[in-house]
Amino acid sequence: MAGDPYKELGVSKGASADEIKKAFRKLAKELHPDKNPGDAKTEERFKRVTAAFDLLGDPEKRAKYDAGQLDADGNEQYRGFGGGGRPGGNPFGQGGFSGGGGPGGRADFEGIDLDDLFGMFGGAGRQRGPRDFTARGQDVRASLNISLEDAISGATRRIQFSDGRTLDVTIPKGASDGQTIRLRGQGAPGRGAENGDALIELKIEPHPIYKRDGADLTMDLPVSVPDAVLGAKVRAPTPEGEVQVTIAPGSNSGKLLRLKGRGAFAQGRRGDLLARIVVTLPETPDAALIKFAEDWRAKRPYTPGR
Question: Which residues form the J domain (predicted)?
Answer without folding.
Answer: 4-69
